[in-house]
């Protein structure tokens, strides 16, 4: 195994690089977990040493994909964003009747569309100066939110490890008619609770999420306890999977649960029986 689980289990505190290694390797993630940081001070944002900034205006989804797929530390502000929904969720503009018009397609009713818009998670108006996305392994600052794009079984294991590590018995998530990534991370930050969202139209088409993945958000302050719970389970059972009997390396064999036809035995078992008969 490339990851020394026992060594990680014996550590009191893991680095963000070690956390990222554990998340990516043990959950078999397809993408890097992304650290998200909100900047409330203009000078702090301006002086932050990012590797990349958007060229043309982009969506939050596109900014984040540079971190989760290309391993870049990116920063952006209102001038870099073309997505109006993201600007509203990030408190960079006030919700308007014009924006309601873009939501009617979800509800076929103007008043309901306005209610859906105003119910979205939002940061305080005019306070945010910019934000950073970075691969968790490279983050130079403590993240406010850790954002992951996963399949459903990976999400199942991540949230179960949050429950085990945080000692809370259930979780509830916040779904909005769009603004999946921007609104999803803002909800996680505002409430300091995990969140899960499906892809919205924008995140599906511009965020490179065409394989049916979902969005997972963990408060930055809690990502360490999620990883610690993951490591402790791995050290105890020998595998990350919670599906069926614990101890399998992959988080969920894609076969019927407890099917008697799906059973493996030692390769030498048949030969040993034949020798005994002879």
UniProtKB/TrEMBL annotation:
InterPro entries for this protein: DUF169
A Pfam family this chain is assigned to: DUF169
Stated name of the protein: Uncharacterized conserved protein, DUF169 family
Organism: Desulfotruncus arcticus DSM 17038
Matches recorded under PANTHER family: BLL4979 PROTEIN (PTHR37954), DUF169 DOMAIN-CONTAINING PROTEIN (PTHR37954:SF3)
Recorded superkingdom: Bacteria
